[in-house]
Write a structure and sequence with these properties.
Distance between the termini: 17 Å
Shape: globular
Strand content: under 5%
Structural class: mainly alpha
Helix content: 55-70%
Radius of gyration: 18 Å
């Protein structure tokens, strides 16, 4: 509870001190797994209007990413990011822009992925609703997604190998984004 209040206070303070108006929210399923809520709020405050432009199709990935990186770099240099650095905040923005642009360009792919994953991950969704650890659920969901392409895929075995020796099935990134969305929604219930 104290962490949420602290995050809200930080977000409010950043909103009051920053000239950039808050607009679009960053979908939590797009954030790097190690991102904190405070970091996401800081990035939302800095680039919310850019995300609006991406969602409406007025900005493509490259231009939006450039604008976002510039704002984040300037905010870090000005000491307006509560001690969070560019290397932590920029990936949050890049993921959000890339995924929001992809969702806008391929909505049918995301709809189809959601239909498939509701069935494939039904047991995990129920377990998350009943309190399963989110990191464990995400790993299990990713493994199930890979195994839907290659039933013999062993997550732990493949990810223990050096990257040049991994044999990982090709899977559309929409599957992973939608899986995290479904699990995040289940956690909120």
């Amino acid at each position: 509870m104290k962490k949420k209040i602290f995050t809200l206070i930080i977000a409010a303070a950043l909103t009051a001190t920053n000239a950039t108006a808050f607009a679009a929210e960053i979908p939590r399923e797009t954030t790097p797994l190690n991102s904190t809520e405070e970091q996401v709020c800081i990035v939302e405050n800095l680039i919310g209007d850019i995300l609006d432009e991406v969602q409406t199709g007025k900005l493509g990935y490259t231009l939006a990413a450039g604008y976002a990186n510039t704002r984040i770099r300037k905010a870090v240099i000005a000491g307006e990011t509560n001690g969070h650095g560019y290397g932590v905040l920029s990936p949050i923005a890049q993921n959000a822009i890339r995924d929001m642009r992809d969702m806008m360009l391929r909505p049918d792919v995301y709809t189809q992925a959601e239909e498939q994953l509701k069935i494939l991950l039904a047991d995990l969704i129920t377990e998350v609703e009943n309190g399963m650890d989110m990191n464990t659920a995400i790993k299990a969901a990713y493994e199930k997604i890979y195994q839907s392409v290659n039933p013999s895929f062993n997550y732990d075995e493949q990810f223990s190998l050096d990257t040049c020796y991994r044999d990982i099935p090709a899977v559309d990134m929409a599957m992973f984004t939608v899986a995290r969305k479904l699990l995040n929604d289940a956690q909120k219930k």
